[in-house]
Every structure is written in structure tokens, then in C-alpha cells.
Amino acid sequence: MCTIATIFSIVGLIGVATDADTLISVNWANSEVTNVRTNGFPTDESIHFYCGLNNLVIEVEDNGVQDTTSKSWSAADCEEGKSCEAFDDCKETATATVLTAVMNVVTKIPSLVTLIKRMPRTGDNNCGKFMSIFTGFLGIISLSVALGDFHVYCYKSLLDEDSFDIIHTNDDGVSVNLTGDPEYQLGPGFICMCLALVFDVPALIVNILVPCPPPAVNPDEAFEGL
């Protein structure tokens, strides 16, 4: 279970990627915007919005021509538009989640090594068990808080918006007001982290319930005093 949780955590961590194609595949939240209007005029454009932990990607397609813009959260500003409050909430939450996502994977590696060491009788001891339980517990708590914050302050904040309304500047430096009806959903990166948490809990319970073997007794010491 711990191995599966580690794999899911690594996949979810890819959500910190800055590459547009990678982020589109492993985003933490995304939206398809319908009924798109540019500067108030109806158009045939389609918009896809992808939210990662370090970057966001806005993909605008018009008559088969696709314009993909990827920006880091630190460089992305929403100075105008009705979606700015939700945008700012998501920006703060996403960037704050980066450290937790990284530490979740980092702490899983020693925890996994300790669990492997506990498998043979000779490698199991109370010290290793305690450290494995301690790191596993901290990982579950920190990841639960991070996922909850992202769900409430980023995903739900965006979901509560009735419309998608931002000032978008493409790679050519042209700024337009894009509006439309968004349909937000959680992305594969977030879902993988949730699955990692699902496998983390039973792994921790098993780790707690499995006792360490009693210390080996030296045969010579066993007969002393007889």
C-alpha cells in the first residue's frame, strides 16, 4: 500500500511542472469555457484553463488556430475582470501547496524504506516502527490540510464564479477581455494525491497494529541461573 501511495504522490507532484503540455496532462484543476465572448462579442473561440501548483495554462482556440499561454503564478496578475478574487485565492493556495506536495513525496521515501526493513524479523525494531509511524502520521495530516485548502480556496472558489471573466494577454502581447461560462473540475494531479492519501491511511494502521518481535535471546544467557 505504501508503494502504491508513493507512486500516486509522485504523479500528483508532477503538477508543479512549468511545461504547458505536462501541466495540461497532470493539472490539479481545469475548466472548459463555453459561450465565449471576446470584448463582449460572441465568437467561435474555445477556452481551456489548467491550474497547476507553480503555473497556469490558458489555451485559446479560434478557427483551428491554438494559442497556448503558460505563466507562473508569481508572474500572473489579474488586474481586471470579475474572476480576479477567485484567481487570487487560487494563486495563493496553489503556491502554498508546493512545499507540502514535495515534502509528502520526500517523507514517503524513508517511510517506505523503513517498512521494507521491517519485513524480515531481524530488521524489525521499535525505533524503526516509531519513525515510520511518526513520518506517516505527519504526512497524512499535512497532505489532508493541503488538499482541503486547495479544494476550498482554489477549486471551490473558482466553482462559485458564475462566469469566466479575465483580461488575457497572449504571447504576441495582445490583450483581450475573455468571458464565458466555465465548467470547472478537479484534475488528475489532485485526484492522484487523494488516492495516495487513501492508501496512506490503511498503511499507517497496519504499521501500528503489527508488533515488533521480542528481542533475540542469547542461548548462553538463557541457561544462566539454572
Description:
- With 226 residues, this protein is α+β, with helices and mostly antiparallel strands.
- It has one domain.
- 50% of the residues lie in helices and 23% in strands.
- It contains six helices and seven strands.
- It has helices at residues 2-13, 20-25, 84-118, 126-159, 188-209, 219-222; strands at residues 29-38, 41-42, 46-51, 55-62, 65-72, 164-169, 175-186.
- Strands 1, 2, 3, 4, 5, 6 and 7 form a seven-stranded antiparallel sheet that branches.
- A hairpin with a 2-residue loop joins strand 4 and strand 5.
- Helix 4 (126-159) runs antiparallel to helix 5 (188-209).
- The longest helix has 35 residues, at 84-118.
- The protein is elongated, with a radius of gyration of 24 Å.
- Keywords: Signal.
- Residues 1-20 form the signal peptide.
Tally the beta strands. Answer: 7
User: Describe the biggest sheet?
Assistant: 7 strands, antiparallel
The SS-based structural class is alpha+beta
Strand content: 15-25%
Mean pLDDT: 81
**Count of alpha and pi helical runs:** 6
Report helical residue fraction.
40-55%
- Rg value: 24 Å
Summed up, the domain count is: 1
Rounded to the nearest angstrom, the distance between the terminal CA atoms is 47 Å
The H-and-E topology, N to C, reads as HHEEEEEHHEEHH
Low-confidence stretches: none
Shape: elongated
